[in-house]
Amino acid sequence: CAPNKAAEGGVSDLLELVTTLRIFISCVERYPHDSVAGAVAGRALAPLAQATELCVRGVLEEYKDAASRGNLVALLSAVWFIREFCEASISARGLVRQHGGPSLLGPALSNPEADDHLLRESVRLLDCLQGPVGLLQTIPEVLEKGPRVLTALLWRIRESSREPWHGFGSLPPKAVLQAAISSFEAHPDNRNVHDAALALLADLLQSVEYRTAFADVGGWPYVLLMMEARGADLDVQRRGLQILCELQRGGACVGEHM
């Protein structure tokens, strides 16, 4: 993009204001009971809240503009800003939800020219707005679409499964396992989908709840067929063996399939 002198000037002025604000915040943190700090903070709260809302609204407007023009560079930048806001601030998440929330991500997730970076950021934002439940509910919607979106979702679900504070434990094991298996069935020839699904399964099956649910959702044929079809792929064989080792720990009706 060509340099925008007006925009550069605005950023410079903003950074100057932020510097002053940081100094004030630092002083308040060091002396929270100071009478001057308390009085100034009380007067500044409403204008700062308004400024925060203006920032979030401004980025949302830029996102919509970039989506309407098909400007993927600006779209990625806007998604990144929104995701940063939402991960750091409950109020920002509320504002984004008021303006469409996850439905805003349609242009980013459905654009066939979207690169992997944009897809990863979009899926991460979806996770921030809706949590693992939102990720899981999106799988059926994108099964028949491009496999790259599906791959990004599977990798993000795996990351969520490793964050115990993230609410992943509330998901039904059968539903999560079925999402991985249905992804393979929808794209039987796509290596990226396979790799993401196998990695997710290898992690999930460390849990006895998931091992117990594995046979019920038809997991055995999926793993065995995958290993047979891609016998020369060392990564697939490694993942497959990892899954089989986990299943040997019990809870998955091993004897009926081995």
TrEMBL record:
Protein name: Uncharacterized protein
Origin species: Zooxanthella nutricula
